[in-house]
Structure formats: structure tokens, C-alpha cells
Amino acid sequence: MLDVSPQDQRQGRPPQRGPPPLGNSQQNSVAEQRQEPKPKPIGDRCNPLCPFFRCAQKALRITVEHYRGRPVKVAMCAMVGDRCVGPQCRFAYCEKRAMLPDGRCAFAVEAKSRAMKSFEEELQEEVRLASSLGIKGKRLEEI
Q1: Which helix (H) or strand (E) segment is 109 a member of?
Q2: 30: part of which helix (H) or strand (E)?
Q3: How many distinct helices (H) and strands (E) make up the chain?
Q4: Domain residue ranges of the chain, discontinuous segments joined by +
Q5: In the chain, which residues have pLDDT < 70?
Q6: Cβ 107 vs Cβ 41: under 8 Å
Q7: pTM of this prediction exceeds 0.70
Q8: Are 41 and 50 in contact (CB under 8 A)?
Q9: For the chain, what percentages of helix, strand and coil (3-state, to nearest 5) are there?
């Protein structure tokens, strides 16, 4: 795309090539498309393939191996020359400081606690079940 301003035409400058300058609205949409990486725990355990997992010795290497014809990412330790043992390694740490001492990910533990029902929700469900069964003033455990 050629952009020629009237001032450039008067001064005899060649037209500029390249994308048009971004306005504020276009810059904001580009910033919205970039997202912060998300933690990738396996179950509730930290994973060496997580974007926040780091090695203090800078020995963590992510390689691609092929398993049954499909590429699979594998974390390798350059010091040992074998697969990374993950949170069991003494040099492993989390950039977000979310790795607990037992190797669990705090993000995964937090997500599981959010998934649990609150006491009020359980009580409402119990009352709803009791009313549908026609039982008044008794607990479901007593029946």
C-alpha cells in the first residue's frame, strides 16, 4: 500500500511502503489478542511443560519426540541428559511461585476448591430433595 501525504509530494520524497499506521482502536485489539499464558498442571501436580516451570541451573530443554506418528513435547534435563523429573528435582521452581513443597500446583488446588459447593448450596439441595420426597423436618440421613 502506498501512502503519499501532500507534504511528501511537495518535497519529492518517494511514497512509503508497508502497513498503514495503527490507530488507538487497532492497537487495543492487538493487545487484547495477546493473552497471558495459563498454567498447565497435570491433575494437581506441577508439569515441566508449564510456561511458568523453570530450572535454576538453566538445564530445562523442551524437545519434540514422535510417539505413534504424532509429535509429543518432552521436557529434557541437559545436566543429566534424560527426561526432567519435574517438581522432584531440587533445581525446579515456579516463576509465579505456585509450586507447593509437595510438588502440587497452587493454581490447580485453588481451582478445585472453587469447584466445591458452598454450604448454602448443599443445604438448599438437601431441602429441595426432602420436599420432593414429602418429608418435613427430618434430615435425609435419618431416613
Answers
A1: helix 106-115
A2: helix 24-33
A3: 4, 5
A4: 37-116
A5: 1-33, 114-117, 135-143
A6: yes
A7: no
A8: yes
A9: 30, 20, 50
